[in-house]
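Appendix B: a complete holo record

For completeness, this appendix reproduces one full record from the ligand-bound portion of the collection. The bound molecule is adenosine-5'-triphosphate. The inputs are the chain sequence and the ligand SMILES; the output is the full three-dimensional arrangement of the complex, encoded as structure tokens. No fields have been trimmed.
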Amino acid sequence: MFVNNDVMNATTKEERHVIQLNDPEHPVILSTEGLHVYYGKKEALFEGDLQFASNQITALIGPSGSGKSTYLRSLNRMNDRIATVTGKIMYRGVDINQPDIDVYEMRRRVGMVFQRPNPFAKSIYDNIAFALRLRGVTDRHQLDEIVETSLKQAALWDQVKDDLNKSALALSGGQAQRLCIARAIAIKPDILLLDEPASALDPVSTGQLEDTLLSLKAHYTIIIVTHNMQQAARISEYTAFFNQGRVLEYDTTSHIFTNPSVQVTSDYVSGNFG
Ligand SMILES: Nc1ncnc2c1ncn2[C@@H]1O[C@H](COP(=O)(O)OP(=O)(O)OP(=O)(O)O)[C@@H](O)[C@H]1O
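The structure of the chain with adenosine-5'-triphosphate bound, as generated:
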């Protein structure tokens, strides 16, 4: 992993430590610059400059209310109606936080999977085909192919291939969450945002979901909010630690969990607060 330890906007190294990425194998695909998020007059996020490496997993960790979901939801403009988001969100060189951006098209490239699995009350097949049809894909063979590929990538195909016409509401929680991932990847995004996707799952389903994410990073850039420290350590290359509306530390996951530069990070990852 190639990183240089430049510190951006640091007051002292012990207070804030944010690396800049420089890995030619995994160039930066998304970054935020000067991002501020306000709910009414309340500023929920005020220091959130981060870069994300392509085809890598980045974990966002931090105590409850520190701004992780606020940050994640801003990345594909899910906060547009509830918050004011200022600053730049650069995706492949384009600021997608500009008013003239086609948000619908942008969300095709920057997809989101939510905390609770939320399959539609439709068949397993139609959960995936729905968004494709909306986007003009009507050829049955093409739909069949994309449904199969998406379910395979989400590691669900073997379990559901004979039940594609059954209701998605009959799936287990873990299966339903992987269906939601299949649904998100069917429209071929670049980036997958996941907000605590395993919080409603049992340990076995959580393990399966983590394996799925590890295999998906070959095709997608993954940014995941998690409260589970072990999960962040198991699956991510980079970790950002949020505290009180700021990113206090951003570094390789191994650095964050073995030798963090900021005392508050150290206290958090060792379970002293949060
Ligand atoms: N829709 C909203 N309206 C007003 N305030 C909000 C809203 N959503 C979040 N907040 C506030 O913004 C701050 C950051 O919340 P956020 O949900 O981003 O934190 P978080 O780190 O994701 O927390 P958690 O881990 O508990 O999900 C909190 O003070 C929260 O109360």
